[in-house]
Amino acid sequence: METIRLFKMAKTSAVKSGSMAINQLKAVLVVAEPALRESLAGLSNPRLLRRWSQLRPAPGTGPQAASCRTLRLLAKRILHLTEKINDLTARISTAIDACAPKLLELYSVGPDTAAALLTAAGDNPDRQAIEASFAALCGASPVEASSGKTIKLAVRYEATVLMAALDEWL
Q1: How far is residue 65's CA from residue 12's CA, in Å, rounded to a whole number?
Q2: Fewest beta carbons less than 10 Å away: which of 2, 15, 61, 126?
Q3: How many C-beta atoms surround the C-beta of residue 50 within 10 A?
Q4: What is the pTM of this model?
Q5: If you compute the radius of gyration of the chain from its CA atoms, what whole number of angstroms results?
Q6: Residues of 98-128 as b/e, b for ≥16 C-beta within 10 angstroms?
């Protein structure tokens, strides 16, 4: 389970970094020269990334040269992170197959859902003798969050990913 947890942690980090790079790339495009924006109009996202990664820096140190260089660097970063995300997904799937081979065969259970379920169960899935203890571990059972006269029930924040996995699975 530790292997799956570590690969999942690395994948989550790569996905977040990729999202940040995409947002930065879009911000650069907004302020880029109109001629540069128009030359790239109508291309699909994968083609845009490939095209941006091959942009030649404009001569000089002006805004157009900076835009081209920045677009190129960000596109290369996004392509690299996408490659790493795909590699980590394959490694997660291989690790899941090693410890729970039938889990990925279930309808609507992919590598991310299976990884969340397996890391929640841990190395000793027999420790949850009844469904209620697993629900409590997952945060699917409400806990009292009252103060004063108001009585409320809440779900623990840290279990939201696992609850999403359970929703997909069930």
Answers
A1: 33
A2: 126
A3: 13
A4: 0.71
A5: 22
A6: eebeebeeeeebebbbbbbbbbbbeeeeeeb
